[in-house]
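pasting input
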Amino acid sequence: MERLHDIGVGIVDAFIGLMMVGVNLLPEALAEPFQYAFMQRALLTALLVGGMCGLLSSYVILKRWSLLGDAISHAVLPGVAIAYLLNFPFFIGALVTGALTSVGIGVIERHTRIKSDAAMGLMFTAAFALGIVIISQIATSTHLMHILFGNVLGVRYPALMLTLAVGLVSLLTVALYYKELLLYVFDPVQARSLGLNTSVIHYGLILLLTVVIVASLETVGIILVVAMLITPGATAYLLVNSLAAMMLLATTIGMLSAVIGLVLAVRLDVASGGAIVLVVTGFFLLAFLFAPQRGVVARWFRRRRIPMAG
Amino acid sequence: MINRPVPATDTGDVAVAIRDLTAAYDREPVLAGVDLDLPAARLITVLGPNGAGKSTLLRILAGTLAPLHGEILVHGQPVEAERRKSRIAYMPQQEQLDWDFPLAVRDVVLSGRYGHIRRQGGWRRFLPPSLIRGEHEAAVKKALQDTDMLERQHVPIDRLSGGQRKRVLLARALVQQADLLLLDEPLAGVDSASEELIMRVLRRTRDQGHTVLMVTHDVMGARKSADHVVLINRQVVGQGPPDAMLSDEMLARVATINWIKPVARERSLSSVDGPAASPRER
């Protein structure tokens, strides 16, 4: 166990070293805050979280799973609280309640006449309420605040190792099963008629989403992680016409927002999660206004030039 | 009376054998005890009124819907096994898809080969679509040529007209080079040029020995081009050559078939999105 921990620290440090090579190429004013070890850890975490959330956000947008992402992220809270209470890794608790909630949503949807949006809203608020009640009994309000809104500057090695592992797993999964995921998200019926096991893909994708949400807890918190799972994908969706490009761009936007948000948070002494989400929302607004084909400005110009068209 | 050449590959084989097939949505039966033997290498048209279970039959064959009970053999094999070998291709109605999806024509057609690519195994099955070459690339090119979409292969699918969308879905089905082709209303909402092209492709596919099974409302079209007609209304009302099946008497028996092209679509039945191939609405 001790040994495993040391190997993990070694790998994380290797990644930090690699990252710092890039950071030191930046102008000194920008690179300066990252001379502290805690800032380096925060930067790596932010990059990883921004990247993996951005990567999956394309699927969330195209599959119309925004509300599901919201639901899972809230459902994670009681798991974290119970894990804290029983003193085992919060990752496991979060995974269990996240998974239970998505199963519960499926059950309600299939066995009653209640539609999926209500089923999700019902389940995740209930889970969230349970989490709040447990936490109010056991921990201080600062602790609750950290789970809800994240505290990337306080990230320690175990959490960073987890984030790194989840990041690599999600990248690998998406790279290896790109075709299967594409087919499932675009046309699940066709996926099935080609003999793919759509149940495995469906729950696999939900599981991946849950794991990513849990790993993002410390950075942006469970409330704002939803933004990172929606906004980068939505922004890229306005800008490009191919799925691969959309995923690449969404990942880049996620990483950029995380870094810029982190720097702003330190400079202005504001909450890091909020800063990151505001930056990514800024990217979305830029795309909304200035996207070459689908932007407001471009459409306005097209209408002016060709009156009566459309 | 239109003279139709007898298909070159009329072997008298049975392509699809269905026994006692029953399907229901929320306890409301859609198909009840269907027995059906469909001839191989023919262009088969399934006709029936709205809600008669035509699309349901097709979706059960495509594997996107599980029947309550019954047995289906395709070329003598269980349907599930044939499906896993990509020997069954399915062309859905275009309304089932999100055409705003960021894909180009070629990406959609290539996705029809994903089953083949998976089965070939090895590390190549993990390659991204842009690096797929060889027989798959050749098959995609041929399907695009056959459907006259080769020049538009890089066009994003959100810019296609209705007829072009149908042709893309047809190309995706053709590219599988499956023995059994299932088509759900392939001519609905299509301009006459595309209709002509689609029927030409289907006839050629039949002549090459594949079985083409299509569901339609279009009695005139069936009279013109089908080799074999199945009348269905929850049960099989009759099957045989078009002349015999499309008489006024038979059409009256299958009841309330729309003589004009339908305005309302068949009540959209469950599409299996994700898990549970259950016949329930999801």
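fyi Chain A has 14 helices and no strands.
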